[in-house]
Design brief:
Blueprint (H helix, E strand, L loop, with lengths): L2 H28 L1 H22 L3 H6 L1 H22 L5 H8 L2 H11 L7 H21 L11 H25 L5 H22 L8 H29 L1 H4 L6 H13 L5 H17 L5 H5 L1
């Protein structure tokens, strides 16, 4: 990975780590559906002029069906899931579950793309998913709290989102290789906006959200979605999906820091141990950690 790619990876991790903070700030006032809808609508409005200015509209149209699928699976549905999770679990915990995304990517690559893992990678999948299940078991409770929400369904939503992200990375590799990253980023947000526009209006909050919530949504849409997705699809094009998706290693670090700085959220021992197990399994499953080579 070149120094420029590494810099973009760190910037992407910081932006996506902040997205969990902004979802926590906006979900309570906007609700999950309106928040996810505003996120993709705002990102679309930011990205479309850039796409047109660079003359890449034709690339979007030529790959419209595949990009539409990515928009649903990599934006619309995961954004809804994480916005819902933000109502009842911390930004740090959501981001730790998000760190399991490469595990799904590796598993789906094995089953779908016939990218058969080595024994060490298979062990990594087992370790990583074991960490996810242990942390989910520790944190999930389907008993409604005082606010009528349960952390259990929030955990389920996070896991569903990571599955969709893993599928999307492999789908992008197979069907959108060579397509300009800006076209994929813009098209996916436009597709998600088309799908979520009517539900967003239907579930629009009855009470006007605060200025803080609006600022959070604006930053979530422009910085954490518009700019971030350009970086993400650039990384997929430059270094491949396996390395690009490794950004999830760094996201929990930023998410926990942002949550601690701005929301006073803490990090429990269970969260720390669960995160360590997930990241160890992910490092083995994606080939970033190669014990056999280390032994030579």
């Amino acid at each position: 990975m070149k120094s420029r790619d590494l810099a973009e990876l760190l910037a992407l991790a910081a932006l996506w780590g902040a997205s969990f903070l902004f979802m926590r700030l906006g979900a309570g006032e906007f609700g999950p559906v309106a928040l996810a809808g505003l996120r993709v609508v705002g990102a679309t409005l930011f990205l479309l002029p850039l796409l047109v200015a660079r003359g890449q509209w034709a690339a979007l149209r030529a790959n419209g069906r595949a990009i539409f699928a990515v928009g649903i699976a990599n934006s619309a549905l995961p954004f809804l899931a994480y916005s819902y999770a933000a109502l009842s679990i911390t930004a740090g915990l959501s981001s730790i579950f998000n760190a399991g995304t490469p595990l799904w990517g590796a598993l789906i690559a094995w089953l779908w793309l016939r990218d058969r893992p080595t024994s060490w990678r298979a062990l990594g999948l087992a370790i990583g998913f074991g960490g996810v299940l242990w942390l989910a078991w520790d944190k999930a409770s389907f008993k409604p709290g005082a606010d009528g929400l349960s952390s259990g369904w929030a955990v389920v939503a996070c896991l569903a989102a990571t599955l969709l992200y893993g599928w999307s990375a492999n789908f992008t590799k197979r069907h959108l290789a060579g397509v300009p990253p800006l076209a994929v980023a813009t098209g996916s947000q436009l597709s998600a906006a088309v799908v979520l526009l009517l539900p967003m209006l239907w579930w629009w909050p009855a009470q006007t959200p605060s200025t803080t919530a609006w600022v959070a949504v604006a930053l979530l849409a422009v910085a954490c979605t518009g700019v971030a997705y350009v970086l993400y699809f650039r990384l997929i094009a430059h270094v491949g999906p396996a390395k690009a998706i490794s950004v999830t290693f760094l996201i929990p670090v930023f998410a926990v820091v942002w949550g601690w700085m701005f929301l006073g959220e803490g990090l429990t021992l269970a969260m720390l141990l669960g995160c360590a197990v997930i990241l160890l399994g992910t490092a083995l499953a994606t080939g970033l950690l190669k014990p056999r080579q280390a032994a030579n």
